[in-house]
Amino acid sequence: MSTTENNTQEKETINNPEAACEPTIEQENNQQESLEQPDELAEANAKIAELNDKYLRQIAEFDNYRKRTMKEKAELIKNGGERVMEAILPILDDFERALANMSKDQNAKEILTGIELIYNKFVAVLKSNGLQKIETEGQNFDTDYHEAIAMVPAPAPELKGKVLDCVQTGYMLNDKVIRHAKVAVGE
Length: 187
Fold this sequence. Notes:
Layout: H1 3-15, H2 17-21, H3 25-78, H4 82-102, H5 109-128, E1 131-133, E2 146-152, E3 163-168, E4 171-173, E5 176-179, E6 181-186
Helix pairs in contact: 4-5
């Protein structure tokens, strides 16, 4: 507004006091704009908060995905040879049976010694790759490690619920059971 307009407006308000109470068109426009601005500002702030929340959720979801895939990858690497180990277990059983039968024959002492060396080397390689034998002798029956194939009367009361005989050896690969021990349990 120019000074001439201001002077004219002041004279009008002095001569007409009611005119001073009435807002000018410019003042009405300013008031209307100021009323619209808080609504727009509130909408913009709400939109910012919504987008920020969405962004944080996406980051958290991606972080969880990354951790889960890393864990799955580590599990695959750790137990990647499980199929191979399962395929080798029957061969290991055959080795043990052959050693048990050869020890009964007096004529095969030198062959027995050679096969024992091969067997021990084979078992050492399997152990170095994470294979462990599940111990059953005198242990309490545990369904996490044992599979009961027979219930046998216990020769003594303290042997009830304990493993009396192991029919097939069980194995674990990196603390995961890959074959349960087949056992006879005292009742």
